Each structure stands twice: as C-alpha cells, then as structure tokens.
C-alpha cells in the first residue's frame, strides 16, 4: 500500500510540474496572433488573385502562368450541377486560359464574409459582383456569385489555393 501511495504521489507531482498556466497562456496568445496574421495573409491571397484577373492580360501565356502560381499543384475546381471536382494541376488550366482569351472580368465588389485558419489550412467564404465583357463583341454581363476557397500553406509558408467552388 505504501508503494502505491508513493507512486501516486510522485505521479501527481510529476504531472503538476508539467503544467505551467503562464506558459499555456503564452502559447494560446501566440497561436491567436498567428491565426490573425494568417487570416490577413489569406485575405490578401484572395484579393490579389482577383486583382490579377482584372489588371493583367491573362490571354498572354507568361502572365497566365504567373497567375496560376496562386494555386497548389493539386488544385481542385468544383464544378456545378453535381459534376465531380476537376484536378487542375498546371495542365488543367488550359481551358481556363482559353476562356480568358475571349473575356475580361472587372470586379465591382468583393466582400469576404468569413476567414478561418489553423496550422497550414484556411478557408475563405466570400461573395462578389463583377462584369464579364466579351472581348470581340464588347458585350457585358453582370455576374454575382458566392465562393468558398480552401487554402494550404506550402513549405515556403505561402498560402496557395487548393480548392475552389462557386455557386
């Protein structure tokens, strides 16, 4: 019985020594600060990606390839109407590049509704209003949509878009 008591006492002391409320609070505060910083960085990726669509000639191969750097190499684009997601990679962007040869998009408003990040994953919910203009005919169409992005932080600590779905 004395052995059991000694073991329990030592265990209690050992475990109580491993908890440091001050250190735990510091860790929590650091994590919250990093999450806020990540949230700002994630928002910046989303806004920069859309800004690049508006301000660059994405029909140009070099410019378009630079734009695809916003995305992971295993980027998934979710289709509508119950179709499966398309694994874009660098090759899968071919159809998107062709589309940018015939249209130009101007965003009137991009509103980020929600951002959350943890470790190396983040998600962003946002909606926007834009105008799509056909380059040949100069016809314009108003667009209004919502989107959900999932981003991953790569080895260089850069946020990249891994998954995108529009409604």
Q: Could you list the spans in which at least 5 consecutive residues all have pLDDT below 50?
A: 1-34
User: Number of domains in the coordinates?
Assistant: 1
Q: Name the CATH class.
A: Alpha Beta
Mean pLDDT over all positions: 79
Q: What share of residues are in beta strands?
A: 35-45%
Q: Largest sheet, order of strands side by side? A: 2-1-6-5-4-3
| Number of helices, where a helix is a run of at least 4 consecutive DSSP H or I residues | 4
The succession of helices and strands, N to C, reads HHHEEHEEEE
Protein name: DUF4440 domain-containing protein
InterPro entries: NTF2-like_dom_sf (IPR032710)
Organism: Sediminicola arcticus
What does this structure look like?
There is one protein chain. The protein is α+β, with helices and mostly antiparallel strands. Helices cover 40% and strands 37% of the residues. The termini are far apart. It contains four helices and six strands; from the N terminus they run αααββαββββ. It has a single domain, classed as Nuclear Transport Factor 2, Chain: A. It has helices at 2-17, 21-55, 61-67, 94-102; strands at residues 71-78, 86-87, 103-118, 121-134, 140-153, 159-166. It has a six-stranded mixed beta sheet. Strand 3 and strand 4 form a beta hairpin.
